UniProtKB/TrEMBL annotation:
Membrane-spanning ranges: none
Top-level taxonomic group: Bacteria
Organism: Eggerthella lenta
Protein name: LysR family transcriptional regulator
GO cellular component: protein-DNA complex
PROSITE patterns: HTH_LYSR
GO molecular function per UniProt: DNA binding; DNA-binding transcription factor activity
Matches recorded under PANTHER family: HTH-TYPE TRANSCRIPTIONAL REGULATOR CYNR (PTHR30346:SF28), TRANSCRIPTIONAL DUAL REGULATOR HCAR-RELATED (PTHR30346)
Domain HTH lysR-type span(s) in chain numbering: 1-58
Homology family: Belongs to the LysR transcriptional regulatory family.
Stored SUPFAM superfamilies: Periplasmic binding protein-like II, Winged helix' DNA-binding domain
Keyword vocabulary terms for this entry: DNA-binding, Transcription, Transcription regulation
């Protein structure tokens, strides 16, 4: 039994597909198959069983995987400590993120990570909506994702990292543009636009609207499309999270909502609980867990112009 076999086993136990695991490991499928068969022969018991075109862990395989992954994490930490002693932390982190963190929080986070660890870790960034991003994370397409909370995902860890306020926004000529704040109830009978149903943020906004008896056109994917609609129609009131996306529109008046918590839209760093991670990924998760954005860096209410 050697370390390479254990790394190969850990990857195959995650992906449960020989071709995909071999591709991730940069080895041929026959090489991976031979390594796993040798490991099983040494242990004297099968670790996988075939289920259609995929491989499934046996009960022994599941128990063995738990210990192997824990051991590999500790080995990887030891290697990383040695590399860091010589100033060598390197690797790639694949990140999926919703749009709302890409204008402020995420750039600051990456800037400050590089300031501490240098430029040797490379980041690949991918944009999407919360549910598809989480599903891609489960398929190992990303190491980490930044999304709203998606329910019924017990194998994933959701760590709250930043919140965005829900605000109303209007054109300067709108009758409520002069108000310092509004209640959601004040919007009854007005032309209100907000996020579409079926997304985490859309469902949260819908729950709040129903509580206050407010009807809205819930058809929009993001702050850019909402901002464009409000800018085009002076009668309209937009409801969206206060993110950098609204800043691309001139002369939009942002109005705080009185009866909604400041942390209405909570955004999480998401990662697999028990996955084997490189030291680069592990260091990024640890850094993000402790990270606090600079004071005043997240947008506040007012007029963007």
């Amino acid at each position: 039994m050697n370390l390479s076999q254990l790394y190969y086993f850990a990857k195959l136990s995650e992906m449960q597909h020989y071709a995909n695991a071999a591709k991730e490991l940069y080895i041929t499928q026959p090489s991976l198959s031979h390594a796993i068969k040798s490991l099983e022969a040494e242990l004297g018991a099968p670790l996988f069983e075939r289920e259609g075109r995929r491989m499934k862990l046996t009960p022994l395989g599941r128990a063995f995987a738990e210990h192997v992954k824990r051991g590999l994490r500790e080995i990887d930490k030891g290697v990383a400590l040695a590399q860091e002693y010589n100033g060598k932390l390197s690797g790639t982190v694949n990140i999926g993120a919703i749009y709302t963190v890409q204008g402020d929080y995420l750039p600051m986070l990456l800037r400050d990570y590089h300031a501490q660890y240098g430029q040797t870790v490379k980041f690949n960034l991918f944009q999407g909506f919360s549910t598809p991003l989480v599903e891609a994370l489960e398929r190992d397409e990303y190491d980490v994702a930044f999304t709203a909370k998606v329910p019924n995902k017990p194998d994933l860890c959701f760590e709250h990292v930043v919140s965005h306020q829900l605000v109303a926004f209007v054109a300067p000529s709108n009758p409520i543009a002069h108000l310092k704040s509004v209640s959601l109830g004040d919007l009854r009978g007005r032309l209100v636009y907000t996020y579409r149903r079926g997304t985490p943020i859309g469902e949260n906004v819908n729950d709040a609207l129903e509580e206050f008896g407010v009807s809205a056109l819930q058809e929009y994917e993001d702050e850019i499309s909402l901002g464009g609609m409000v800018q085009a129609d002076p009668r309209a009131v937009g409801l969206a999270t206060l993110s950098i996306g609204l800043k691309s529109f001139s002369d939009i008046v942002i109005i705080p909502i009185e009866d909604i918590p400041q942390d209405f839209h909570r955004i999480y760093m998401v990662y697999k609980r028990d996955a084997f991670r490189s030291r680069a990924v592990e260091s990024f998760i640890e850094f993000t867990s402790d990270y606090v954005p600079p004071k005043g860096a997240i947008p506040s209410t007012g007029t963007f112009s």
